[in-house]
């Protein structure tokens, strides 16, 4: 081997070694910059502790419900099998939705914008929804953010840009309310859970109860209104036909619509029957302050290591 080849071989060895990641060297680099890692980790940990302590407690109140049996639907189902053909000649639809369909419809209505708008306006919960700062357990009172809402003057003070106004719109309220409410049905057993998260456990429990009452009232009103319209239509059809069999069907249908109205008027729990009512929760639902602090510690340590290692390799590349 001549001197030129030997010189070339000597140059190639360190080049390969420089490209390899040596774990011991990496550990040495981290150890040399341990104070930087410790400092950054400490800063992130302290910041996460302060952040966790600043977060207000949020309480969750929930109620377990069951679908109320729609007793009036059985009569229509029997009529559909017995007089379906004759009823179709008169332009009358005997099909009826079952309990499951009505329950699902009620859940969708509960989550709808219109229902939420009406709920907020009826119970005047906009300040408790959009301006609450904290809740005092001692006297069960609410402290509002003074930069957003003046409780004494009942005046909104928040500063926003157009098209928004100091008083939150119903669309803004709906977006906020949607983050607080949960309404789901268990597909296995058909049980329904309605829950509300709020800084005040009392307000959370109160809203759950109001929601159950309001959705039962709304669904009851919808069915009564539909039954009244159906009865009016069937009565007109009855006056116009002379066929005995069709008149029998119409009489039966009017009877079923009357049962629907009676059933609705005598039953408060029209769609949802309360199995386990909402309670004022004693324990907070969130935040998980310990998890926030642990995450801050890990994030600080990771960023500290990245900064030390990156600084070392950037320095060696120059």
From TrEMBL:
It is a multi-pass membrane protein. The chain crosses the membrane at residues 35-53, 290-314. The keyword Transmembrane helix applies. The keyword Lyase does not apply. Residues 19-122 form the Polysaccharide chain length determinant N-terminal domain. It comes from Pseudoalteromonas arctica. This is Wzz/FepE/Etk N-terminal domain-containing protein. Keywords: Cell membrane, Membrane, Transmembrane, Transmembrane helix. Pfam families: Wzz (PF02706). It comes from the Bacteria. The lineage of its organism: Bacteria, Pseudomonadati, Pseudomonadota, Gammaproteobacteria, Alteromonadales. Its main location: membrane. It is found in: Cell membrane. InterPro entries: Bact_polysacc_biosynth/exp (IPR050445), LPS_length_determ_N (IPR003856).
């Amino acid at each position: 081997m001549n001197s030129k080849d030997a010189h070339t071989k000597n140059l190639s060895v360190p080049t390969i070694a420089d490209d390899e990641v040596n774990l011991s060297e990496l550990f040495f680099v981290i150890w040399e910059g341990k104070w930087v890692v410790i400092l950054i980790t400490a800063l992130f940990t302290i910041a996460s502790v302060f952040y966790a302590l600043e977060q207000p407690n949020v309480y969750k109140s929930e109620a377990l419900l069951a679908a109320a049996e729609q007793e009036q639907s059985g009569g229509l189902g029997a009529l559909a099998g017995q007089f379906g053909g004759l009823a179709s000649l008169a332009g009358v639809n005997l099909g009826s939705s079952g309990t499951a369909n009505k329950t699902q419809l009620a859940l969708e209505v509960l989550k709808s914008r219109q229902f939420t708008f009406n709920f907020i306006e009826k119970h005047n919960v906009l300040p408790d929804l959009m301006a609450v700062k904290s809740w005092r357990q001692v006297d069960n009172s609410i402290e509002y953010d003074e930069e957003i809402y003046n409780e004494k003057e009942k005046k909104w003070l928040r500063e926003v840009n157009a098209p928004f106004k100091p008083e939150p719109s119903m669309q803004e309220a709906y977006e906020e309310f949607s983050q607080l409410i949960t309404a789901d049905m268990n597909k296995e057993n058909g049980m329904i859970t309605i829950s509300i998260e709020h800084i005040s456990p009392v307000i959370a429990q109160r809203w759950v109860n109001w929601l159950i009452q309001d959705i039962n009232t709304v669904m009851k009103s919808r069915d009564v209104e539909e039954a009244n319209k159906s009865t009016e239509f069937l009565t007109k059809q009855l006056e116009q036909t002379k066929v005995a069999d069709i008149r029998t069907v119409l009489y039966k249908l009017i009877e079923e619509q009357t049962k629907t109205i009676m059933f609705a008027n005598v039953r408060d729990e029209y769609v949802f029957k309360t199995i386990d009512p909402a309670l004022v929760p004693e324990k907070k639902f969130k935040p998980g302050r310990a998890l926030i602090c642990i995450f801050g510690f890990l994030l600080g340590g990771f960023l500290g290591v990245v900064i030390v290692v990156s600084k070392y390799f950037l320095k060696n590349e120059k």
